[in-house]
C-alpha cells in the first residue's frame, strides 16, 4: 500500500497552514483572481431610496455579485423614510439595475436568488426606535445568514444628515470598536461617506469631529470616485515601477507641472448646488489636489493605505496657504458666458436655472501653487479646472527644463520645444512623451514628436466601475483610495484663504470667458508672466 | 496518388487561413507573396505602421495622426492541419481587441513540395472596450514547406517584435520531443496548450510538468476551471466554514462525456454558441486538474491505488489532514454539455454537528451553490456560470504571468492520480 505525497503548496515553498484554519488565510484562494475577498458582511444603505442607490449602488452590487466578488452570505439592508415592503424595495433595485447596470438584461433566476439577500427597513433618520429595529434586524441577519457581525454603513444621504445618523447608529449599539476583534464586539463596522466633505475648513472639521465622536478614523471611508484605483496605481507604477523616471522627478530636471481638469459640460441643471459651491470646492479641493499629491509624493514605504496617505499628506503640508496678496497674484477665477461647446450653443452661467443673475460664483479656477519641499522647491504647479471648456481632458503635464546648451541653434536649427511628459487620465488614459527629433535630410532641422502610449489600446482588459472597486475595497478593508481626515482638512487649509479672499473681493476680480474656449485671458497671463503657456490637451 | 490528399489538405488549411484577409477588422488590403523570403516579410512588417498606403495616406489614422501603438506581446500559433486552421482563425478573431500585438501563424508541411516560404500579412484594428481606442495588431501567416519546415525558429525569430514576451499556442495535442516543438518552446516565454487535447493525459501532464524549467505553461483546461475554483474557494472564505477544510472526507466531481467516440481534435459546435469548442481527446483533463488543485492546496496524499469507476471514471482514497478522503471522478453522458465540462462538485466534511456538505451544481449557464453546515439554514443561491469560449480562455492566459505555481502543483498532483489509475496499478 504505497503512500506517496501529492506535491502541494509546501513543495512550492509556501506552506499551506490548515492547522488553524479559522485564522489562517483560505488556502484555496492562493493563485485565484482575487487573493483577498470580503468576509461575510451586511451592507446597510442609509437613504436607500435615493438617486445614488438607484444609479450607482444597486448596479455596482449586482455587478459585483455577478463577477463572483461578493461572499455568499452578503446581505443588503435598505434604510430610508419611505414606507416600502421588502418586495417593493427589491423591485426598485431590480428596475434600477435593469436601467443602469452594464450587465443587461437582468436574468430573472439570478436576480431572484440575489433578491433573497436584500431587505428593507423603514425609519426616520432621527428616530431611535427605527435604529433599535435595525439593530434587531442585523442581529437576526447575523444569526440566519452568518454575516458574523461585519457591517458596512453606506451614508447615501446629504452630509448635513451624517452627524445625526452616526449618533443614532452609536446609540443603537451598532458601532463596534473598529477593526479590533474581541469578546464583546465580534466583527468590523465601517462607514462610507460621500463628498462634499464640508464647504470650508471649519465645516469640514466640524463634520469630521461629529463623525469621529462615533467612529474611529480607520472605520471611516470617504469616497472620491473620481480618483479611480487604476489612475492611482498607474501613476504609482509609472513612477516607482520604472527606474527611469524617479531620478528626474525633481526640481533639477522639471521646469513646471500643469494639472488640468477640463470639462465641456456646464452645470447640468444643478444650479442651486453649483452656485453655492463653485469650481474650487467642487474639483480643486478633492480631485485636483489629490492628483497633485499622488504625482508629487515621495515613494511610500509600502504600497498600502496608511503609507500612501502619509506621503500624500506630506505633499499637502508642503503647499503653503496663500496670503491675500498672493491670492490676487497667483489665482484666477472665471465664469462662462454664452458660447458654443462641441457644436452646441451654451447659455451664460448666470442664465442657468436657480443661479443668481448677478452670481459671482466661479465656474473656472486657475492656481499657481508651490510645494515647499527639497524635491519641489522652485517648481510651479499650475492647476486649472473649468466648466464649458473647449475639450474634456484630465491630465498632468510635466515640462522638463531645456537642454543646458543650445547646441543646434548654432548649426542653424530653430529653437527646440522643451520635453513634455503628459500623463493623461481622461479620456483615453495614457502617457505621452514629447521630444525633439531630427527631420531626415541633409539640413539640421528639428521637430517635436510625440511618443504616445494608451492603456486602452495596449492592454485590452476591462477595468471595473469606480463604485464597484471602492465598495469592494471598503469591504476588504483597503483604504488606499479613500481620503483621510487629516488630508481632507489640509486641503481645506490650502483653499480657505483663496475662498475668503475671493468672497471678500480682495482676491482679484471675476473674469468672464466664452463657453467653448480655454478659459479667461487672465489665466493665460498667469503663465505668460512666468514665460510659460498652458497646454491645450 | 499519395500527393493528392496532401495537396487537398494544404488547400483546405489555406482556405481557412484566408479568412484573416477577409475579416471585418481588416484596415488595409493584405500583403500576400508566394515564394518569398523572411527579409521581405520583415521589411513589409517594418513599413506597415509608418509607410503610407498606396494613396499616400497613413495606414491607420486616429485624430488625423498615424495610429500610435504600444506593443505588448507576440503570439506564435501552430497549425498542424485543417481542423486546427479553422479553430485558430475563429479563436483568434474572437479575441477582438484583446489580441496580442503580433501573431505569427505557422503552417509547417515537411512533406510538401514547392517554394519553401509563402507569407500573408494583414493588419487589423478593433474598437476597444466601450467603443474606445482602436486596438490594432498584425497577423503574419507563414507557410513553410519541405526541409525548411524543420527549422521554423529561423523563420519566426526575425519576425518577432523584439523585447516583448512571446507566447506559443499549440492547438491540438503537442508533439512533445519533436524538434520543431522544442525550437518553439526555446523561443517562448510561455507555451499554451489545452490538456483536453492530449491523447494520453498522463504522458502529456508529465511532459508539461518537465517543460517548466524551459518555459511557462498555460493550459486552457485549467482556465476553464476558473469559476469552479472561485466558487469552491468562496465556501471557505468565511472563517466559520474554513475550519471544515482539514476535515474534508469526500470530493465527488461529475463531468460530461460524449455518448459516442469522436475523432480526437475535431472541433464541435455548441448549438447555442458561435465559438469552435476545443477537441476533447481527454475529457478527464479538467476534472482531474480540479481534483489536483484541491489536493495540492490542502496537501492531501495519495494513500491507495485507484479503483475503477466506469470506463472514464476514477476513484481514489487520499489521506487528508484529519480524515481519509474519498475522491470520485464520475463521467456522465450528456448531449447538452461539451465533453470534459464539469457538471457538479460535492465536498463533504465531518463537523462537530454532523456532516457538512458544499455543493455546486451546474445546469447550462447557471449554477446552484449550496452550503449545508453547522446545522444552520442551508445557504442556497444561483449564480451565472457561462461557459467561456476558447477566445476568452486564450485571452485570459495571454495576460497571465509566466509561471503559475498553483497550476504547476495541481498538474503534478493530477499526474500522480493518473499514474495510480494506470491498468498495471489496478491489480
Specify the CATH homologous superfamily of the largest domain in chain A.
Dihydrodipicolinate Reductase, domain 2
Low-confidence spans of chain B? 262-278
Number of domains of chain A: 2
Overall mean pLDDT score of chain B? Answer: 83
User: Structural class of the helix and strand makeup of chain A?
Assistant: alpha/beta
Radius of gyration of chain A: 26 Å
Overview of this structure, please?
The complex is a heterodimer of chains A (537) and B (427). Chain A has helices spanning 51-66, 86-100, 108-115, 128-145, 162-171, 201-212, 229-240, 271-296, 305-318, 324-330, 407-410, 455-458, 466-476, 485-504, 521-528, and strands spanning 4-5, 42-46, 75-80, 118-122, 151-155, 189-194, 220-223, 254-262, 331-341, 344-346, 364-370, 380-386, 393-400, 420-426, 430-438, 446-454, 510-515. In chain A, α1 crosses α2 (86-100) and α8 crosses α9. Chain A is of the alpha/beta class and 537 residues long. Chain B folds into two domains: 3-164, no CATH class; 226-420, Dihydrodipicolinate Reductase, domain 2, CATH 3.30.360. Helix content of chain B is 28%, strand content 29%. In chain B, β8, α5 and β9 form a beta-alpha-beta unit. The longest helix of chain B is centred in the C-terminal third of the chain and has 16 residues, at 405-420. The interface between A and B is large, with 64 and 74 residues. β1 of chain A pairs antiparallel with β14 of chain B.
